Amino acid sequence: MSGAALRILLLSDVHANLEALDACLAVAPAYDLVVNLGDIVGYGASPNEVTDRSRDLGKVFVRGNHDKAATGLMDLEDFNVMAATAAIWTRNELTPENLDWLRALPHGPVSLPDFPQVQLVHGSPNDEDEYVVSLGDALAPLVTLTVSLTFFGHTHLQGGFFVNGSGADGFRPEYRTVGKAESVAFQLRTSARYLINPGSVGQPRDGDWRAAFALFDTDAQVVHFHRTPYNLKSAQDRMFEAKLPPRLATRLAAGR
């Protein structure tokens, strides 16, 4: 990969969870660039605070389906009742400036000019709203990709998929605890193509309640997956006070 060596902080699916975002930023290693893979808002009760913080952090973004839903860019028919309710609430809460900014977020894939072999998407490289959950989902884009590394979000599942000359497989970082801040390093190979999800900052769905993010070291070609606890009760209390669907708050504790 070309370009000067960078340490890129990868954030995705914050979903208006300010407490989770703050916790990730507090433990994140030193970084040179922040990229956001979408779904800045939706579900959570701090859409303006999280949007403001995201805008301050960096300039590289991809829009998510909840960003589109909250700004009127997509029909809510494909959303379940809880998600649609949260999208409408978010739309009414956003400041005009933040609403316009979210509405203008770019459609993926988005490239990094200094790293032509890296691209950023929310869902699949083939469809921004498509979920890449299984190896079967990943194979079609992996075998047709012209870049070696794609970072994606949307599924809220930390890990990814790869294909090389000997086959294809998926991977998930394995952590030692369920309540502490920790990280797992994943070494990339030059002979493989990857789809990698940094996990969800604000709404993990892999059974681990901790906020998730990743850091990519372009020089060492290593992705460091991270999990960190955050003030769960505060995030839940905000949601209860906002009268968002209670299930959106209670499920945070289970990471589902």
Automatic annotation (TrEMBL):
Q: Which Pfam families match?
A: Metallophos_2
InterPro entries recorded for this chain? Ap4A_hydrolase, Calcineurin-like_PHP_lpxH, Metallo-depent_PP-like, Pesterase_MJ0912
Gene Ontology MF terms in the entry = phosphatase activity
Cross-referenced Gene3D superfamilies:
3.60.21.10
* Residue ranges constituting the Calcineurin-like phosphoesterase domain according to the UniProt record: 7-220
- A GO term from the CC aspect: cytoplasm
Which family, according to UniProt?
A: Belongs to the metallophosphoesterase superfamily. YfcE family.
Q: Write down what this protein is called.
A: Ser/Thr protein phosphatase family protein
Source organism per UniProt: Candidatus Sulfotelmatobacter kueseliae
